[in-house]
Amino acid sequence: MSRAYRKKESKEDRRERRAANLARYKETLKFGFYCISHPLDGFWKLTHEHRGSLAAANTILILAIFTRIIKLKYTSFLFLQVYWEDINIFLYIASIIFPLSLWVVGNWALTTLFDGKGRLGDVYIGTCYGMLPYPLIQIPLMIVSNFVTIQEGQFYSVLSVLSLVWCLILIICGMGQVHAYSAAKTLLFTIASVAAVLVMIFLLMIFFSMVTQGVSYFISIGRELMYRM
User: Fold this and answer.
1) Alpha-carbon span 93 to 136, nearest angstrom
2) What is the rounded average pLDDT of the residues 50-60?
3) Nearest to 101 by CA among 193, 210, 205
4) CB within 8 A of 66, min separation 6: which ones?
5) Helices and strands (H and E) in the chain: how many
6) Phi-psi category of residue 123: left, alpha or beta, with phi > 0 → left and psi -120 to 50 → alpha
7) Distance from C-alpha of 194 to C-alpha of 225, rounded to nearest angstrom
8) Angle, CA 167 vertex, CA 102 and CA 136 arms, to 5°
9) Which of 90, 150, 181, 192 has the smallest number of CB atoms closer than 10 Å to its CB?
10) Helix axes 153-179, 39-48, angle to 10 degrees
11) What CA–CA distance (Å, rounded) separates 138 from 193?
């Protein structure tokens, strides 16, 4: 077989692999809609039958973050007042990713100690898939908010809360299926995971406070030495 033929064959293989990966990505992303309508069966298949993917989970997370950001600009001021001089977009994004990361680590760490079946990646994928209703509801609401009056705002508020409650229920169902827990055990470890997140935030606050004080102390010593010299 000639080198040129092998090179051509290699390019064709790469093209087929990219096409297969794209098809797999579309299939796993589409499966998110099955999960939100059939949470128990859907989240079981998501992880135990590998119907989900990390790429699709990342897409849903990015879409949720993007939705929260564009809400600041395009939601009617009757329902959301934004003071742009007080907003740091990077901190706003971190305020979403950071708690999510702590939740994933906390839930995985606790359930690993108590016969949880899910891996760290499974917890992350299940959590992200559970966030899918947020952009699906919030984006249309954002548009509708510019065409309703303040008297009709109750409709907006109810659906906005509904999107969050739906996400919460899906994430709880997802964690139960990921770890193969009963309903009672799932609720127990959901509460325990939230408590773990709060503890980690508290410990991180203490750590960064100590680091800040230590840095300030050494900076003050350095300044004092410079003055004396």
Assistant:
1) 19
2) 91
3) 193
4) 135
5) 8, 0
6) alpha
7) 47
8) 120
9) 90
10) 50
11) 26
What is the domain count for the chain? 1
pLDDT in tens, 70-126: 888 888 777 777 777 777 788 788 888 988 999 999 999 888 888 888 888 899 999
Sequence-distant (6+) residues with CB within 8 A of 80 are 71, 72, 145
Q: Is the distance from CB of 159 to CB of 88 less than 8 angstroms?
A: no
Q: Is 165 helix (H, G, I), strand (E, B) or coil?
A: helix
Q: What pLDDT is recorded for position 9? A: 53
Contact assessment for residue 17 and residue 45, using Cβ atoms and an 8 Å cutoff: no
* Contact assessment for residue 127 and residue 174, using Cβ atoms and an 8 Å cutoff: yes
Q: Please give the residue range of the domain that contains residue 112.
A: 3-228
d(CA 83, CA 127): 31
Tokens of 122: 């499974």
* Amino acid code (one letter) for 89: I
Tokens of 142: 């954002």
Local structure of 154: helix, strand or coil: helix
Q: Helix, strand, or coil here: 101?
A: helix
Residue listed under structure tokens 């899918």: 132
| pLDDT interval class at 154 (50, 70, 90) | confident
How far CA 10 is from CA of 7, 18, 19, 93, in Å, comes to: 5, 12, 14, 41
> Which tokens sit at 96?
């979403």
pLDDT of residue 5: 45
The phi and psi torsions of 172 (rounded to 5 degrees) equal: -65, -45
- Rounded CA gap, 218 and 118, in Å? 45
